[in-house]
Amino acid sequence: MPEPRRHGVQGALLRAWTRRGALAWLLWPASVLFGLLSALRRALYRTGVFQVHRIGVPVVVVGNVVAGGAGKTPLVMALVKHLQGRGLAVGVVSRGHGRRSLDCREVLPGSPPSEVGDEPALVKRATGAPVFVASRRAEAAAGLLAAHPATRVIICDDGLQHYALHRDIEICAFDDRGIGNGLLLPAGPLREPWPRPVDLVLHTGAQPAFAGFTAQRALATQAARADGSRVALSELRGQPLRAVAAIARPEAFFSMLRAQGLSLADTVALPDHYDFDGWSRPDGGDCPLICTEKDAVKLWRIQPDALAVALQFSPEPAFLAAFDALLDAKLSSKPVSARESIHGQQTS
Asked: Would you tell me the crossing angle of helices 317-332 and 72-85 to the nearest 10 degrees?
């Protein structure tokens, strides 16, 4: 069953970003202005007009240059678990997109997603690692180190364009969209010109658009409820399900469910980071509700029986080996005192 097309301004832009058509060229002058302002901002950080903050441990930024989700958070969680497996104390910082609070705070197991953001809440739940959110990621990193001084590595979820926080390793994630039509916002999906120097490129989709490392993506074999009980996806085959997703590409989740042999009587695609406040299950039968792990941290408040399916995300071994080599070189270098501020030592 084909997925419904997105309508309105958002849908028109998403379609325009796939090719250099009339709408893209109409918006091209605005993208030139966007590019000039972005370049000026980068230059102000490089020349020391704006301050760049270095902290006392290596910082790994996982981001993208394309607007919208590209698999950054699953990659962050995979890296956290990889480093935990190596015995390294690792923490995560984020802006906490969509949260109502503005302060710097630690994400605790019971923190409401509305106060810390859905992705930080998911990272905390999935990894148990220290997670801090703040409007300024440098402030979040300082807060994390103050609360957890044994931390050896900090991973920044998103923030490739957040130059105020010095980064030691940059990882750029791409999904199957690649760079779209190759134009800057709003004529295209790019936040900054590509190619640009980064340490590692990882393709999170099934069809990489250009060279780089790859990752395997698959749904977990079980779905979980809020009370911790689980059911095998194989047991759900043959019964109608209502799927809901509030992620950047909900259609991809729906397709993965169908690929597991599940029957979707209905699909509900909501805006990314949708908070589910006041949301109610659509009329029409009592089909079990199935959702993403990211949505479950919010949806379980009002639909505790919703079935959440986690994404199993596995970067290829060569990527992890390259990452370890870069990180080990940083860890072996002489440490810098925590919260030291520098000017201009920025590579991106």
From this structure: 60
202 and 290 assigned to the same domain: no
Say how many CA atoms lie within 13 Å of 280 toward its Cβ: 4
What's the angle, vertex CA 304, arms to CA 299 and CA 307, rounded to 5? 80
Same domain? 109 vs 146: yes
Is the torsion defined by CA of 247, 251, 254, 259 positive or negative? negative
Domain identity same for 90 and 200 = yes
Count: domains in the chain: 2
Q: Mind listing the pLDDT tens digit for each residue in 221-248?
A: 999 999 999 999 999 999 999 999 999 8
CB 224 within 8 A of CB 305: no
The verdict on 126 and 177 lying in the same domain is yes
CA triplet 146, 147, 152: central angle to 5 degrees? 75
Instruction: State the chain's mean pLDDT as an integer.
Output: 91
Residues 237 and 185 in one domain: no
Two structure tokens written together for 65 = 């240059």
The domain containing residue 128 runs over which residues? Answer: 52-215+314-342
292, 308 in Cβ contact below 8 A? yes
pLDDT at 1: 33
Give the separation between CA 40 and CA 299, rounded to whole angstroms: 41
Check whether residue 188 and residue 261 sit in a common domain: no
Say yes or no: 234 and 334 in one domain. Answer: no
- The string of pLDDT tens digits covering residues 251-308 is 999 999 999 999 999 999 999 999 998 888 877 668 999 999 999 999 999 999 999 9
Nearest CA among 65, 6, 58, 16 for reference residue 38: 65
Based on the domain organization, do 160 and 60 belong to the same domain? Answer: yes
> For 238, which DSSP code?
T
